[in-house]
Write a structure and sequence with these properties.
The protein is of the alpha/beta class. The protein is about 25% helix and about 20% strand. The two termini are about 50 Å apart.
Length: about 675
C-alpha cells in the first residue's frame, strides 16, 4: 500500500484534532500495523478483498459436477473426518487430509452429478486429538443449524443445498441508489415483531412490519439477532454459528426475501454483527473447536469476558482475521446486506473491555498498550478498509461508549474508518433526567451540551432510546413518563390526565430534539416510535418462559381509540419532514438560546428554525427568537397539533412569521412566536 502523501502515515487526523499531537507515535504505529497487514495480504492472498472471500473456500461447497468440497481449520487435530446422516455417522469412512497450515480438506465425489450429502441432512466434523480423544463439532463455517428443544438445546448442523437457490428480484436498485444521505434507522428484531405469544418469522416481518417501517419514513433497517445464537434471551449477542442465520425465524431464503423486499422499497439493510465475543458453547459453538481454548480465542483468562461469560477472539491470528473478515463479506455477498452495526466495540478496543472503567474524555485513556488492544483496533481498521474498498456505499456503525477519537475518521488519515458512532450518552441523559430531576430543574445548558458533544467531523447516530433501554430492569421512555396510567388512560374516551398529557408531550419533544440536534443520523427501536408499553423480556426460566413481554403490541397502535396512534403519527412526521429538509445531512446546529428560566432552546440547522419550550407550565406569547436568514417563515412541524395528540393551540393559517432586521441572541434578525408549554415548533423559510 504505497502513498506519496506524508500525512498518510496516520497523522492526517491531527488536522482535525490537534489535541491528539502528544499521541502521534501511537497513531503512526497503529497505522503502520494496518498498512503492513494490507501489504501482506496483497502479497500472499491477492489483496484484502480477495482474502475476505474465505467463505467461498472454507466450509462445504458443491461444485458444478455435484462434488462436495469441505475445508476446515483445526490445527490441533491429528485426524479428521466428515460424518452425518449420509454415511451413518461412520468416523472412518470419509477421512480428511491436513496441510501445513492446519487446514483439513476432503472432496466427496458425486453420484452421477447428485451430491453425496442430501440437502437439509445432519452433519458434523469428527476430530481426533493428540491424546487420542475424539470429539465431534459443528463445522465452523456451516450455513444452517437448527434446534429441536423437545430433544436437546444443542444445535444440529445441516447441509444446506436447496434445489432452487433464491433468485434476487430487485438487484436493479443498486446500493449507491439506496445509500441514504440522511440515515433514519429502524432497529428491529424479527422474533419479537409479532403480537402473538411466540417467535415471529422472516416472512411475517416482510409482510407485516416492513410496510410499517416504510410508511413511517425510515430508510434504514438494522436487524438484530440474525447470526445464530443458542439462547433466545441473549438478544442475539451469544453467537454460536457465525455463518448461519437464525433458524428460529425461518430459512435462509426467507431472510433473503426480506432483504430483497426492503431493497424494493429503497431501504438500506444493516446487520447487527457480533465480532466482539462468541458464545462459550463447545458442542454447537466454535469454543474449544479443535480441543484447545486458543484456536479462535486468546487462551486462559485473556480469552474470557467475565461480564458476558463468553470467549474473546485473538484478532492477531491470520486465520481468525480470515474468519471474521470473511464473515462480513459473506453477509454482503450472500444476503445482500448493506452494512453493519458492530456490537461491543468498547469491549474490543480496550484490554479492560470497559469493565469497571469510566471514561472522562481525557485523551490518555485512549492510548497505550496497557489500556488499548492493538490487535482488536487493527482488525476494526482492516474490516472498515475492506468493506469500503469493496463498496464505498457500505455503511459501518460502531457501538462505543468511550468516545475514542478517530473512530469515524478514514484509515488513510489515521482513523479506524467507521462511518458512524452511536451517541450512547444521549439516552442515558434522558433516563437520568426522568428518573432523578424534576421538570422545573431541567438544565437547558446540560441538555444542549450532551446533544452536541461529539467529535469534530465524526458522524454520530443520535437516539433517545434503543433496545438497551427497553430491556427488563429498565423501562422505555414512555413507561418512565406515564407508567401505570398507560394501562388506564390511553383511550381517547378516557380523561386526558396530567400524567398522560405530560408524558405524550415530552415523548415527542425528547425524540424531536434528539433527532434534530444530536447527530448526523437517527435511530429508533421497534415499537418505541408509538410509545410501546411496558418493557422487553425474553422467555426464560425466571419468567416461566413467557412470551408476554417478548413481542410488539401492534394492536394498541392499530386501535384508533387509543392515543398511541398520535405518537406514531408524530414520529412519522419527523422522518418525512427530515426527508424534505435534510437536517441530518446538514452542518451541526447553531444554538442561539438556552434559557434556564424560560426553559427555552432555540437553534438553526439545515435552513430550519427549531423552537423548544420545555417549561412545564409557562406558555409565551410574542416570544422573540433570533434567526440569521431574513424573510418570511412558516410552521412545518408543530408537536401540539391535534393529529399528534396535542391541544392545537396554534392556528397555522394565521401563523406567518416575518423577520425584523434587529440582532438578537447572536443572529442578525428576530421573529416573534407564540410557543405553548411543552411544545416544539419547526419553522421553514417561505421561498
Amino acid at each position: 500500500m504505497t502513498t506519496s502523501n506524508p500525512e498518510d502515515d496516520g497523522t492526517g487526523i491531527l488536522r482535525l484534532d490537534p489535541w491528539l499531537s502528544p499521541f502521534k507515535y501511537d497513531l503512526v504505529k497503529r497505522h503502520k500495523t494496518a498498512v503492513d497487514w494490507i501489504d501482506r495480504l496483497e502479497r500472499d492472498e491477492g489483496g484484502i478483498v480477495q482474502f475476505s472471500e474465505g467463505y467461498s473456500k472454507f466450509g462445504l461447497h458443491v461444485l458444478d459436477n455435484g462434488d462436495i468440497v469441505y475445508r476446515e481449520w483445526a490445527p490441533n487435530a491429528v485426524d479428521a473426518s466428515i460424518i452425518g446422516d449420509f454415511n451413518n455417522w461412520n468416523r472412518g469412512q470419509h477421512r480428511m487430509t491436513k496441510d501445513d497450515y492446519g487446514i483439513w480438506s476432503i472432496t466427496l465425489p458425486s453420484n452421477n452429478g447428485v451430491p453425496l450429502i442430501p440437502h437439509d441432512t445432519k452433519i458434523k466434523i469428527a476430530l481426533t486429538l493428540p491424546n487420542g480423544a475424539t470429539i465431534d463439532r459443528l463445522p465452523a463455517w456451516i450455513k444452517r443449524v437448527t434446534q429441536d428443544l423437545s430433544v436437546s438445546p444443542v444445535y444440529d448442523a445441516r447441509f444446506w443445498n436447496p434445489p432452487q437457490p433464491y433468485q434476487w428480484k430487485h438487484d436493479n436498485v443498486t446500493r449507491a441508489q439506496r445509500h441514504p444521505l440522511s440515515a433514519k434507522i429502524y432497529e428491529a428484531h424479527v422474533g419479537i415483531s409479532t403480537s402473538e405469544l411466540r417467535v415471529g418469522t422472516y416472512n411475517e416481518f416482510t409482510r407485516d412490519t416492513l410496510p410499517r417501517i416504510h410508511k413511517l419514513g425510515y430508510n434504514v433497517i438494522q436487524l438484530m439477532a440474525i447470526m445464530e445464537h443458542a439462547y433466545y434471551a441473549s438478544f442475539g449477542y451469544q453467537v454460536t454459528s457465525f455463518f448461519a442465520v437464525s433458524s428460529r425465524y425461518g430459512t435462509p431464503e426467507d431472510l433473503k426475501h426480506l432483504v430483497d423486499e426492503a431493497h424494493k422499497l429503497g431501504m438500506t439493510v444493516l446487520l447487527d454483527v457480533v465480532h466482539s465475543h462468541a458464545c462459550k458453547n463447545v458442542l454447537d459453538g466454535i469454543n474449544m473447536f479443535d480441543g484447545t481454548d486458543y484456536q479462535y480465542f486468546h487462551g486462559g483468562p485473556k480469552g474470557y469476558h467475565s461480564l458476558w461469560d463468553s470467549r474473546l477472539f485473538n484478532y492477531g491470528k491470520y486465520e481468525v482475521l480470515r474468519f471474521l473478515l470473511s464473515n462480513l463479506r459473506f453477509y454482503i455477498d450472500e444476503y445482500h446486506f448493506d452494512g453493519f452495526r458492530f456490537d461491543g466495540v468498547t469491549s474490543m478496543l480496550y484490554t479492560h473491555h470497559g469493565i469497571g472503567t469510566g471514561f472522562s474524555g481525557g485523551y490518555h485513556e485512549y492510548f497505550g498498550d496497557e489500556k488499548v488492544d492493538p490487535e482488536a483496533i487493527n482488525y476494526l481498521i482492516l474490516a472498515n478498509y475492506m468493506l469500503h474498498k469493496l463498496d464505498p456505499n457500505i455503511i459501518t456503525i460502531a457501538e462505543d461508549v468511550s468516545g475514542m477519537p478517530g473512530l469515524c475518521v478514514a484509515m488513510e488519515l489515521g482513523g479506524v474508518g467507521f462511518d458512524y458512532r452511536l451517541a450512547m450518552a444521549i439516552p442515558d441523559m434522558w433516563i437520568k433526567l426522568l428518573k432523578e430531576v424534576k421538570d422545573d430543574d431541567w438544565d437547558m445548558g446540560k441538555i444542549v451540551y450532551e446533544l452536541t458533544n461529539r467529535r469534530y467531523k465524526e458522524k454520530t447516530v443520535a437516539y433517545a432510546e434503543s433496545h438497551d433501554q427497553a430491556l427488563v430492569g429498565d423501562k422505555t421512555l414512555a413507561f418512565w413518563l406515564m407508567d401505570k396510567e398507560m394501562y388506564t388512560n390511553m383511550s381517547v374516551l378516557s380523561e386526558l390526565t396530567p400524567i398522560i398529557d405530560r408524558g405524550m408531550a415530552l415523548h415527542k419533544l425528547i425524540r424531536l430534539i434528539s433527532h434534530t440536534l444530536g447527530g448526523e443520523a437517527y435511530l429508533n427501536f421497534e415499537g418505541n416510535e408509538f410509545g410501546h408499553p411496558e418493557w422487553l423480556d425474553f422467555p426464560r426460566e425466571g419468567n416461566g418462559n413467557s412470551f408476554w413481554y417478548a413481542r410488539r403490541q401492534w394492536n394498541v397502535l392499530d386501535d384508533h381509540l387509543l392515543r398511541y396512534k398520535f405518537l406514531n403519527e408524530f414520529d412519522s412526521a419527523m422522518q418525512h419532514t427530515e426527508e424534505t429538509y435534510g437536517w441530518l445531512r446538514s452542518d451541526p446546529a447553531y444554538v442561539s438560546l438556552k434559557h434556564e428560566g424560560d426553559k427555552m432552546i432555540v437553534f438553526e440547522r439545515g435552513g430550519l428554525l427549531f423552537i423548544f419550550n420545555l417549561h412545564p407550565t409557562q406558555s409565551y406569547a410574542d416570544y422573540r427568537v433570533g434567526v440569521q436568514v431574513p424573510g418570511q417563515y412558516q410552521i412545518v412541524l408543530d408537536s401540539d397539533e391535534d393529529k399528534f395528540g396535542g391541544h392545537a393551540r396554534i392556528d397555522h393559517d394565521k401563523s406567518k412569521f416575518f423577520t425584523t432586521p434587529f440582532a438578537w441572541n447572536g443572529r442578525d434578525n428576530f421573529i416573534q412566536v407564540y410557543i405553548p408549554s411543552r411544545v416544539a415548533l419547526v419553522l421553514a423559510k417561505v421561498d
